[in-house]
Amino acid sequence: MFETEVKNGMDDEKIVELFYSRREQAISELSDKYGKILKKIAYNVLNDPLDAEECVNDAYLAVWNTVPPQKPDPLLSYVCRIVRNLALKRYGSNKAKKRNSEYDICLDEIEDCVPSSSSVEEELEAKETASHIDGFLQTLDERSRITFVLRYYHSYSVCDIADMFHTTGHSVSVRLSRIRKALKKYLTSKGVSL
């Protein structure tokens, strides 16, 4: 999915072994191989290169502190999740600032498809909705599923997705619009009130 942004480097298993050996080289190998994509994910949420860089560095520390005992497989997904969660936490603390990140745009696009939550009951419903969204993603073809995840999980811009698929921004926008309509229909059929 991120082939164009991932550098060839040390095998993931060897990087994890370096973490298990507590060798600092593990962090530099992780950074060399996946640093570009991790910075992109953090930047997409925060729209600030310094904040994004800090989130990525915090993620390296988090990986250092969790491996071992964790043995992530696949490593990229594990680190992307950590970076995204750290960026979202930072985003929440920066929320009082002007809305201007790609993440805000993504939230605006998908807000009609996913209900918001504020109470305990609504939090439980949100978990159920997340499960339904996972089910919905399984119904999509691979390209649509990747497009959805890049846009609404990793907050990639429409232009970046278009570049990855060697297509136009309009084509990606149309695909995303169709996916959102299908998602809304799918969630409604599952009894999710929007």
What does this structure look like?
- The chain has 194 residues and is an all-alpha fold.
- The protein folds into two domains: 92 residues, RNA polymerase sigma factor, region 2, helix turn helix motif (Rna Polymerase Sigma Factor, Chain: A, Orthogonal Bundle); 88 residues, Winged helix-like DNA-binding domain superfamily/Winged helix DNA-binding domain (Arc Repressor Mutant, subunit A, Orthogonal Bundle), CATH 1.10.10.10.
- It contains nine helices and no strands.
- It is globular.
Named CATH topology of the largest domain: Rna Polymerase Sigma Factor, Chain: A
Provide the gyration radius in Å.
Answer: 18 Å
Biggest beta-sheet profile? none
What is the ordering of alpha helices and beta strands? HHHHHHHHH
Q: Unreliable stretches, pLDDT < 50, 5 or more residues?
A: none
CATH architecture descriptor of the largest domain: Orthogonal Bundle
- Terminal CA distance reads 30 Å
Tell me the domain tally.
Answer: 2
Features:
mainly alpha, Rna Polymerase Sigma Factor, Chain: A, Arc Repressor Mutant, subunit A, 2 domains, 9 helices, 0% strand
Could you give the topology of this structure?
Blueprint lengths: L11 H9 L4 H22 L2 H18 L8 H20 L7 H9 L9 H20 L2 H11 L5 H8 L3 H21 L5
Helix pairs in contact: 1-2, 2-3, 2-4, 3-4, 7-9, 8-9
Concise synopsis of the structure shown:
Helices cover 71% and strands 0% of the residues. The chain is built from nine helices and no strands.
